[in-house]
Write a structure and sequence with these properties.
Elements lengths: L7 H12 L3 H14 L5 E6 L5 E6 L8 H5 L25 H7 L2 E7 L6 E7 L2 E2 L3 E3 L4 E7 L6 H5 L4 H18 L4 E7 L4
Parallel strand pairs: 1-8
Antiparallel strand pairs: 1-2, 2-7, 3-4, 3-7, 4-5, 4-6
The chain binds adenosine-5'-diphosphate and magnesium ion.
Length: 194
């Protein structure tokens, strides 16, 4: 068999399988990004164990219109400004989470920096990135992940019950909230019995 280089799209889908094995991992990645952005308030919404919707809103630094496409580009990060791997003070730096999530879901990034007149948003569906559009948002960022794993049905089949995924999200948020002296709050959860 001939050797061939995999497409970016396929590479992102494969990475998604490693980086985000379940909805709780998406929540962890998004909250870590919010913490890295200096947020002091983080609101999380998860419906149906995170499989239909995960939304994380922060009041951190936000991103400009030029940053949004880069944020969903593989191996693009603002967290390694030089070649020194030993000076890392952030929770992420591999630049893989958002492109991976965007490869297997419907992802909307909406963000505004304090200096911007308004917010900008970007949509990614199964790895296809749309153009940047003007949007409404306070300073900070909302990342909305809908229909997680719709683009990878095999992974979707592998999910436990929505109740189990929901509990895994609660555990993840509790761990993050305990490790970080910040108001991380699970503001809404629907779709599964308490
Ligand atoms: N909530 C956020 N607020 C501000 N910038 C963000 C946020 N989430 C992601 N970003 C930007 O997008 C980049 C890519 O994010 P990600 O894919 O998680 O990779 P990493 O965190 O490893 O850099 C980050 O380096 C950061 O610059
Ligand atoms: Mg990250």
């Amino acid at each position: 068999m001939g050797i061939r280089v995999l497409s970016n799209h396929l590479v992102n889908q494969i990475a998604a399988g490693e980086v985000i094995e379940r909805p709780a991992a998406v929540v962890r990645e998004l909250v870590e990004n919010a913490l890295d952005a200096g947020a002091t308030q983080i609101d999380i919404v998860a419906n149906d164990g995170g499989l239909s919707l995960i939304s994380v809103t922060d009041n951190g630094s936000g991103m400009g219109p030029d940053d949004l496409p880069l944020a969903v580009t593989r191996h693009a990060t603002s967290k390694l400004q030089d070649e020194n791997l030993f000076a890392i003070s952030t929770m992420g730096f591999r630049g893989e989470a958002l492109p991976s999530i965007g490869a297997v879901s419907r992802l909307t990034l909406t963000s505004r920096r304090a200096t911007d007149a308004h917010a900008w948003s970007l949509f990614v569906e199964g790895g296809n990135v749309s153009g940047v559009q003007p949007a409404a948002h306070e300073t900070g960022t909302t990342v909305e992940v809908r229909d997680l794993f719709f683009a990878t049905p095999a992974r979707l089949k592998f999910m436990k019950s929505t109740t189990a995924e929901r509990q895994a999200i609660i555990d993840t948020v509790e761990r993050l909230a305990l490790a970080n002296p910040l108001p991380v709050s699970l503001s809404s959860m629907t779709g599964a019995p308490c």
